[in-house]
């Protein structure tokens, strides 16, 4: 038991320690060293080492920013001033505590545009950063930025891929938007694809992949072009569908579930020449943003993905141009000032050469058949950019593009025994294309408020005309059948978007819009002018439906805590069609958390709604699918998607690894009942031949990138499942979706050799897609058509379960080599490429054919697009 004297000594010791801990003043010398730690860590160190207690409200004082502090033996007051002053934090001693508050220091807002110093081209996604305050922001889709700073800030730094870093000194009296010109570097840094989730903390983007013009140029230049859509298709979670189909399938969704925007205007078909080219000329693409989840609230109307492509504005200072000619196509582009520093223009055009692929598109082995095919495409872009004032800019752009496929064949059959001879010839023309026009007005209301007003029109159409002549031998009767068919969808959009940046850690976006959809699903005209046949002239399906869509959205990009960033939003919309009214509230959430050692966690939840449907004929690979609106019996589609991922970037940014999982449900998706075809689906009663059901998709995506060095590229792997369930299809049983592919692997490599050569290769592998096959067949009942040859007895097939079988796997290697040399007045380049380098015969479609000699039926695979060599010569001046 402790003596009385011992208790006395212990009490005096405790009092001594307390007094010593509280015996500090402003002259007390302290030392604190931290590296990349929260400001709160500094307070904890001072409290533990010197007994200095801090009192503050977390709702008022933010101690989460990371700091680098190196204070060595300095007076306490001077040390605290050095530590807290950059963060606008005031401190005062009250008793034995230091109370922290926020200074009422005046602030000011800097806003303006970041642009190319030579051409005046606005730079999208440029970084604006204050190293003193460790806060920053990025430029929006029009190169505009806004950042609020305390008055004692030293300055701002501006950076962008491929440009020298710029600096803006503090100018507190500046009220008008400033222009920040950045000088292009002589050579672009070796970065191919920038995943914004691994960029600086101020880049608040979730599930967004940004593809810059520099990244597009670094992709394999197949057939003379480095295509932005080819870059997107090579990413995990994305598939291009069948060889030659040219569609986009994202996370188990169908092609109609992708919102693809060209300068803010929707494009309904994005491929040329059976997917070899896209409608986006790479020479004029400035930037592309791709979302496959965590969709920002400003986007709506689709379920699976967003592709937002911005075109160059045109050089404000000098005239420039590019031209190229190759074995497949030729193109040209010119840009320059109409009035220097105020108005610019850009115009481009492309066209394929006639006859280049004629023998490839149609490859028939039918006896006694002489067939020919002719295919081509063209497109053109125009853009005008005018500056009215530092606060007002106007953009006018237009696009037109078309593909054409003509097929002709002749058939002859001599009299042989009981078979009656005949002669027949046929001609078919297929046309499809897009028209778009866009008018945009940007207005800067003030340093913190930016607005964009958009009006646009877009149209997609498909048409075919055909003529068939049939003449039996030794008979006066003939059949002359002709007809045409066309389908069209039109969109007219009016929209206003606002962007408000009250603080660097907050960006608030909101807006509203109205869309008029005009649907003409299918109009058919049929005529029979043959001798011996009654005259027939029929037109049906000539009806149009108008749908009115209204939308309203709001979203907040918020740096909530030290390592936590959030994107919160809501999208509301309504749709009125044929007296039927639908509405939808769609919440959006994206979250990103920064872990130590450059690890990042990210998660999202999105609810998407879609009022448009696509009637798709699974057996067709031409763009014959029909766009239709929601109706009384076919409700709008909606999806719910959740995703979670983790990513890691190496210390010096050389390598990046990302892994993401997702689960998505889709309601009110549609499917043809039985074997209905697109051409029979025209008319006002289309909803009577479809079934409405549910879809589901889930999987994982892995991507490893090498982003620097002379060798760069990525490996992407997807493991995915996708299925559909309909009450009256496949007896109500769930079946794999048409493009359910279990495994998908993409390898993209680019290698620089010296100053002039660049080699690139892209290899892809995908599991076979589902296929429905007949399990039995029998002769049809009834007389054959008088226009069919007598030996063609009708055979009816009994189909098995939907998508029970699988096609052969698809794989292909594309390679290219580009030689570039800079001359005094221009730069020339030669590109040598091989599409499908080892001539893999991937399936285009399957058909049931008959071997008449063996009297056997068999499954025949039809392949197109074999090895395609190309040489392209290009100049840039």
UniProtKB/TrEMBL annotation:
Domain Secretin/TonB short N-terminal residues, every copy: 53-101
Record domain TonB-dependent receptor plug: where: 226-302
Keywords in alphabetical order: Cell outer membrane, Membrane, Transport
InterPro entries found in the cross-reference section: Beta-barrel_TonB_sf, CarboxyPept-like_regulatory, Plug_dom, Plug_dom_sf, Secretin/TonB_short_N
Secretion signal, residue range per the UniProt entry: none
Subcellular location, record wording: Cell outer membrane
Protein name in the entry: Carboxypeptidase-like regulatory domain-containing protein
């Amino acid at each position: 038991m402790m003596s009385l004297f011992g208790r006395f000594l212990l009490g005096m010791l405790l009092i001594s320690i307390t007094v010593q801990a509280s015996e500090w003043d402003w002259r007390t010398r302290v030392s604190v060293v931290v590296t990349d730690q929260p400001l709160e860590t500094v307070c904890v160190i001072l409290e533990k080492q010197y007994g200095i207690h801090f009192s503050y409200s977390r709702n008022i004082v933010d101690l989460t920013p990371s700091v680098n502090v190196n204070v060595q033996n300095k007076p306490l007051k001077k040390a605290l001033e050095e530590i807290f002053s950059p963060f606008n934090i005031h401190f005062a001693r009250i008793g034995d505590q230091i109370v922290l508050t926020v200074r009422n220091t005046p602030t000011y807002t800097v806003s303006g545009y970041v642009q190319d110093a030579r051409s005046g081209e606005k730079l999208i996604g440029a970084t604006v950063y204050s190293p003193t305050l460790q806060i920053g922001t990025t430029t929006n889709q029009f190169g505009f930025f806004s950042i609020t700073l305390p008055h004692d800030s030293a300055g701002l730094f501006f950076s962008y891929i491929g440009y020298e870093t710029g600096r803006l000194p503090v100018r507190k009296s500046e009220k008008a938007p400033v222009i920040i010109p950045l000088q292009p570097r002589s050579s672009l840094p070796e970065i191919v694809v920038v995943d914004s989730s691994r960029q600086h903390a101020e880049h608040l983007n979730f599930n967004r992949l940004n593809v810059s013009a520099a990244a597009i140029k670094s992709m394999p230049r197949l057939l003379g072009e480095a295509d932005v859509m080819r870059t997107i298709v090579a990413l995990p979670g994305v598939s291009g569908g069948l060889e030659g189909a040219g569609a986009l399938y994202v996370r188990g969704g169908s092609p109609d579930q992708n919102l693809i925007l060209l300068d803010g205007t929707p494009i309904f078909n994005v491929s040329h020449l059976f997917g070899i080219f896209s409608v986006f000329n790479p020479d004029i693409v400035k930037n592309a943003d791709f979302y496959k989840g965590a969709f920002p609230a400003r986007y709506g109307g689709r379920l699976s993905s967003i592709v937002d492509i911005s075109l160059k504005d045109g050089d404000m200072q000098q005239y420039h141009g590019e031209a190229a000619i190759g074995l497949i196509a030729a193109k040209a582009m010119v840009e320059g000032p109409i009035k220097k520093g105020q108005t610019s223009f850009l115009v481009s055009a492309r066209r394929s050469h006639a006859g280049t692929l004629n023998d490839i598109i149609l490859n028939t082995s039918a006896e006694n058949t002489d067939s020919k095919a002719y295919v081509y495409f063209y497109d053109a872009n125009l853009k005008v950019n005018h500056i009215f004032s530092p606060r007002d800019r106007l953009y006018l752009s237009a696009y037109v593009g078309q593909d054409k496929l003509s097929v002709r064949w002749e058939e002859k059959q001599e009299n042989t025994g009981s078979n009656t001879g005949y002669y027949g010839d046929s001609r078919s023309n297929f046309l499809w294309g897009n028209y778009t026009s866009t008018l945009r007005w940007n207005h800067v209301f003030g340093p913190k408020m930016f607005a964009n007003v958009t009006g646009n029109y877009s149209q997609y159409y498909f048409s075919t005309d055909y003529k068939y002549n049939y003449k039996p031998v030794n008979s006066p009767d003939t059949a002359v059948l002709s007809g045409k068919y066309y389908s069209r969808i039109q969109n007219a959009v009016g929209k206003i978007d606002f962007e408000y940046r009250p603080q660097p850690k907050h960006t608030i976006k909101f807006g509203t819009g109205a869309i008029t959809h005009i649907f003409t699903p299918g109009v058919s005209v049929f005529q029979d002018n043959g001798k011996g046949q009654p005259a027939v002239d029929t037109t049906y399906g000539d009806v149009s439906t108008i749908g009115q869509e209204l939308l309203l959205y709001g979203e907040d990009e918020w740096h909530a805590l030290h390592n936590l960033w959030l994107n919160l939003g809501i999208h509301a919309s309504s749709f009125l069609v044929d007296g039927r009214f639908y509405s939808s509230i769609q919440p959006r959430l994206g979250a990103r958390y920064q872990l130590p050692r450059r690890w990042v966690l990210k998660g999202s939840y999105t609810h998407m709604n879609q009022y448009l449907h696509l009637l798709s004929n699974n057996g067709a690979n031409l763009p014959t699918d029909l766009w239709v609106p929601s109706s009384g019996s076919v409700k709008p589609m909606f999806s719910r998607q959740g995703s979670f991922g983790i990513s890691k970037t190496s210390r010096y940014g050389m390598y990046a690894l990302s892994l993401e999982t997702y689960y998505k449900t889709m309601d009110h998706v549609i499917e043809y009942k039985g074997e209905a075809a697109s051409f029979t689906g025209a008319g006002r009663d289309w909803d009577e031949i479809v079934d409405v059901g549910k879809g589901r998709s889930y999987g994982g995506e892995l991507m490893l990138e090498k982003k620097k060095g002379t060798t760069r590229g990525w490996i992407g792997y997807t493991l995915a499942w996708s299925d559909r369930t309909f009450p009256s299809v496949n007896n109500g049983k769930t079946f794999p979706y048409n493009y359910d592919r279990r495994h998908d692997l993409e390898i993209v490599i680019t290698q620089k050799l010296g100053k002039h050569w660049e080699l690139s290769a892209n290899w892809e592998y995908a599991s076979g897609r589902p296929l429905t096959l007949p399990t039995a067949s029998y002769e049809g009942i009834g007389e054959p058509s008088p226009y069919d040859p007598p030996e063609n007895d009708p055979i009816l097939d009994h189909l098995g379960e939907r998508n029970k079988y699988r096609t052969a796997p698809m794989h292909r290697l594309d390679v290219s080599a580009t030689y570039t040399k800079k001359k005094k007045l221009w730069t020339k380049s030669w590109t040598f490429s091989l599409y499908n380098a080892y001539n893999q015969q991937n399936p285009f479609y399957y058909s049931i054919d008959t071997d008449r000699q063996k009297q056997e039926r068999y499954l025949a695979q039809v392949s197109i697009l074999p090895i395609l060599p190309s040489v392209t010569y290009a100049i840039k001046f």
